[in-house]
Every structure is written in structure tokens, then in C-alpha cells.
Specification:
This protein has about 220 residues and is of the alpha/beta class. It has one domain: NAD(P)-binding Rossmann-like Domain (Rossmann fold, 3-Layer(aba) Sandwich). It contains eight helices and seven strands, in the order αββαβαβαβαβααβα. It has a seven-stranded mixed beta sheet, with helices on both faces. α4 links the parallel β4 and β5. It is globular. The two termini are about 20 Å apart. The chain binds NADP nicotinamide-adenine-dinucleotide phosphate (NAP).
Length: about 220
Amino acid sequence: MRLSSSSVTHFLLWLNLVITTVHFAQSNTGIEITSDRGVGNKSDLDLLWRIPPKSTALVTGGTKGIGHAIVTQLASTFGVRVLTCARKEDDLQTCLQEWKEAGYDVWGVVADVSTSEGREAVMTKLHEMIQQSDCAHVGKLDILINNVGSNRRKKTVEYTEEDFDYIFNTNLKSLYELTKLCYPYLRRDVESLQTAGPSSVIHIGSVAGGPTCIKSGTLYVRFL
Ligand SMILES: NC(=O)c1ccc[n+]([C@@H]2O[C@H](COP(=O)([O-])OP(=O)(O)OC[C@H]3O[C@@H](n4cnc5c(N)ncnc54)[C@H](OP(=O)(O)O)[C@@H]3O)[C@@H](O)[C@H]2O)c1
């Protein structure tokens, strides 16, 4: 699925209805959870999404669909420096070229985040990106969006162990482990909370995993 630039904006408005933003801050629990609720026009969007230019974001799976829309919106509207990843190098290079020609500050790395090697490759590139001296908050990551997710639709009794591992590693383990790896960069102490503000972690889920469960296969439902 490819989204046009106008549908990107509409998509983000829709996305705002369903996402929960987790702010990492220094508190008794260590994690403060806030939930942003729906809006319908650009001025409301401006109010909800105040992001300093050259803030940094990691968006997994940015070459297609929802991830591509998020990367484009963050980089274009908000001037965010974005790192994204995908498994297919050709697709990634094509997207990076398009973003570059549009003047957007998007970095990329070929990586499979369902594997520990892939996650390490992402972290190496992330470390390189956030050390750039013109970042809004040098050495810190401001936004992590765990977008990668996949599915195989089958009857429950037809799922193999390999299916289970693929969906588990892609939809759950990847975001759990990647968020842990990013935590040192997302974490704010009292001082950096004042200067850099809170960081945010967003996991893209699906209504297919909620109470309105649709026929997407029991493994997809289990892990979303
Ligand atoms: N589309 C929907 O209707 C829908 C609805 C509700 C929720 N969602 C959720 O929204 C998220 C995005 O869905 P989508 O439909 O936009 O996906 P999509 O169009 O299939 O795109 C997935 C993106 O992630 C990359 N990717 C997939 N597996 C990866 C991996 N293991 N490591 C690194 N990159 C990987 C893909 O590139 P490569 O193939 O090159 O790796 C691609 O850039 C998913 O979490 C999905 O569950 C989707």
C-alpha cells in the first residue's frame, strides 16, 4: 500500500485516534502513560504534535504503508530527523532517494528487526545518527515508533511452529527488545527532562487484536 501525501495527513489524524503515547520520564514508576484522543483539523493537530525541529525518531518498517506515511509526515511537517529500516534494500534505497529529493532528513538501514542481528544493526545506525551535532538533543532519541508487524492468515490448527515463531518474533519480540535497546537513549533524568522534554514510544497495533476481533488468524490476534 502506498499513501499519497494528502492521505498521509488524513492517516495521521486517524492514527491519533488510536495510538497511546508512552512518555519515559524520571518518576517513581519510571514510566508515565498518557493517551492522546481524537482531533479533526490541522490546528488541533498542531496543538497535539509539538515537536522541536531536528528532533530524532526511529520508525521501524518505513518503506511501505503506515510506516512510510509516518516517516514522511514526521520528516516533512515537523522537520524531524528520522531513521527507518526494512529488509528489502532496493525498496529502502528507492524511498531514501525520494525523501532526499524532497529535502527530508531521513536515514535508513537494511535490517530485520525480528532478529537480534537486525536490531543491533538498527542500534549502530541510530547511535551514529543521534550523535550528529545539529540534533535537537544530541545523543538522545526523542521518538520510537515500533511499526513493524506482519501476519499469516490460517486456521488455528494449520499454524506451524515456524508460523508461530515468525509472527511472535516480528510482532512482539521485535518491539519488546528494540524498546529495551533504545531505553538508554529515550530515558530522561531530571536535567535532560528540562532540556529535551519527554521522549515517546508508540507501538502500532490493530483493532484485529481488540474486542472487535476480526478474522485475522489467532496468532495475529494473540500478539497485537
Ligand atoms: N494495513 C492494515 O490494514 C493495518 C491495520 C491495522 C494495523 N496494522 C499494523 O500496522 C503496522 C504496519 O502495517 P502495514 O500494513 O503498513 O505494513 P506493510 O505495508 O506490510 O509494510 C511493512 C513495512 O515493514 C517492513 N518490515 C516488515 N517486516 C520487517 C522486519 N521484520 N524487519 C524490518 N522491517 C520489516 C516492510 O519492509 P520489508 O518487507 O522490506 O522488510 C515494510 O516497510 C503493522 O504493525 C500492522 O500490524 C496494519
